[in-house]
Amino acid sequence: IVAIGHSFTRFFTRTAAALAVSFGALFYPGFGNAHALWINMTDYHPAFDTEKALAKTKLYMGWGHHFPVDGYVSEDEFNRIWLTTPDGEEKTIKLETTGFAASELKLTEEGIYLIGVTRHASYNTKYRDAEGQSHLVKQDMTGLSNVFSSTYSQQFAKTIFCVGDRTAGAFDRPLGQTLEIVPLVNPYEIMNNTGGDLPVRVLFEGEPAAHVKLSAKYEGFSQTDESSCATMTDRNGVAHIRIIHWGPWVIKAGLTMEPRGDLAGRVMTESYYASLTFLVP
């Protein structure tokens, strides 16, 4: 029965992904070839040493398709990385520049912490030359001929982790990212990790985003882009993630639209991607 259920889940995920691409509505990292960005923690729930008033953990960036570890990134790929403490104070995080981009965190209070990452926006344009050969350039399509694809994109990542025994805190505090996934229930207080429900709200430019596709999976579910849960936000920007396993999770979302404002005429597509990682006890 378990094997049949697992196979059905994989079949449903593949079918949902195929439908998403076919209808061409909203693109989600993992349903295509785009690399995704996320935040990993060596310990999402570090113990708090009351004598030293200190806890330690380490963040490292995830990039690619294979959660939790895939490709390398460097600090110069990001324009902002910051930590929000349980009392709302914001602190800039400096990444190490060798190997997997990482940073050790020394934390002096218990409770819920948030980390936000904003990656530099990028342009990717494809065109054909006079001989019909295709080329990819990191710019908009201004001045180019025979352009068949041109995209402006930006990625955002976020993690929620808990220090010590105090699980209370502003887990639902928006960080102000252009595209952001905000949990409506504290994941560190989910009691049923084999059938629980995690409602989340997707915000685009601070407002609830309707009909955005999301997918999620726990660490170890798959070594590919397959997900254990695929869903979509309702008209209020709310979606429900079915929690079927304990451990680290990643949720991803993406939004693609016709270019607006000064991007109109410079690209064919405007795209944003977001991820959220956390631990289910």
Q: What features would you describe in this structure?
A:
This protein is mainly beta and 281 residues long. The chain has 1 helix and 17 strands. The strands form 3 sheets. Strands 3, 4, 6, 7, 8, 9, 13, 14, 16 and 17 form a 10-stranded mixed sheet that branches. A hairpin with a 2-residue loop joins strand 11 and strand 12. The chain is globular. The N terminus is likely disordered.
- Would you count the extended β strands for me? 17
User: Outline, from the CA principal axes?
Assistant: globular
The biggest sheet amounts to: 10 strands, mixed
The H-and-E topology, N to C, reads as HEEEEEEEEEEEEEEEEE
Uncertain stretches: 1-32
Task: State Rg.
Answer: 19 Å
Mean pLDDT across every amino acid position: 86
Number of helices: 1
Counting copies of identical and different chains, the oligomeric state is single chain
Cα(first) to Cα(last) distance is: 25 Å
Strand content: 35-45%
Helix content: under 10%
